[in-house]
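Let's practice the habit of predicting before peeking. Look at the sequence and jot down your guess about where helices and strands might fall. Then scroll down.
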Amino acid sequence: MLHKLVTAPMRLVKTIGEKVQEEVDQELYDLPTIQQKLIHLQAIYEQGDLPEVEFKVREADLLTKYENAKQRELEQWEEMTKRRD
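Done guessing? Here is the structure:
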């Protein structure tokens, strides 16, 4: 019983850390999420709710994230195929 009382906070911290990591990964590396953000950004810009300068800055940031995500995806794919060989 004492063991559970001591380890429960550590398990909670681990669970929270894993959830934060999932959110970060989705923000940085999830291609559909990045694509949706690009589409949303384009729509806001076309509606005139975003100045062109701000649009270009945000678009460049999202495109960099997209390129990084594609590179990560490619690296993961290559790693998976190496394991099979």
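How did you do? The chain has a mean pLDDT of 88.
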